[in-house]
Structure to design on (189 residues):
């Protein structure tokens, strides 16, 4: 799946552009890196992408459920065939599907998971609103493995003397870290 994600990334970008999305910046995700960072041109960046897609869904045979939380993946014969969810009134909904995409955003708001998986768990995570690990836990419950859990992006707060002492070459600015459980973090300004 990861190989398909990487191999089809250019096709995905072209598909997104065909839906009317433009990019204000395309550049490396870190110093000397490949041109993989695509910043959406529009108010709120990613929020603009979702709004644009949501408007297009109105003209398609697509049902959008807001304020509906996924609770469990439905697995039959080793294959994910749907999801059970809960709406804002607390009603349980079963959604059968040919494919399920878990896109819940990670675990940057989950202190226990940060303590377990990242090298510097007390840093300030980038774009962390609502990222509590619920989708990851749902996938684990369905049989997914916890590979790659130590990868996060974060900023070192300027006031964190304890963390800066571990990275003396970071200077006075607040560098961004790519953190994992390795003996060294990679960082860039």
């Amino acid at each position: 799946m990861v190989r398909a994600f990487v191999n089809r990334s250019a096709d995905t970008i072209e598909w997104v552009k065909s839906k009317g999305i433009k990019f204000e910046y395309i550049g490396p995700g870190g110093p000397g890196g490949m041109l993989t960072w695509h910043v959406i041109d529009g108010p709120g960046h990613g929020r603009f992408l979702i709004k644009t897609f949501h408007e297009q869904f109105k003209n398609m045979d697509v049902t959008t459920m807001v304020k509906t939380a996924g609770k469990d993946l439905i697995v039959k014969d080793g294959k994910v065939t749907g999801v059970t969810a809960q709406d804002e009134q607390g009603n349980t909904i079963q959604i059968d599907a040919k494919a399920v995409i878990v896109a819940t955003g990670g675990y940057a708001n989950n202190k226990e998971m940060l303590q377990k998986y990242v090298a510097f768990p007390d840093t300030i995570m980038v774009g962390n609103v609502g990222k509590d690990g619920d989708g990851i836990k749902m996938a684990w419950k369905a049989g997914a493995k916890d590979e790659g859990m130590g990868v996060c992006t974060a900023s070192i707060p300027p006031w964190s003397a304890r963390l800066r002492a571990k990275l003396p070459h970071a200077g006075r600015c607040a560098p961004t870290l790519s953190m994992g459980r390795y003996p060294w973090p990679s960082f860039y300004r």
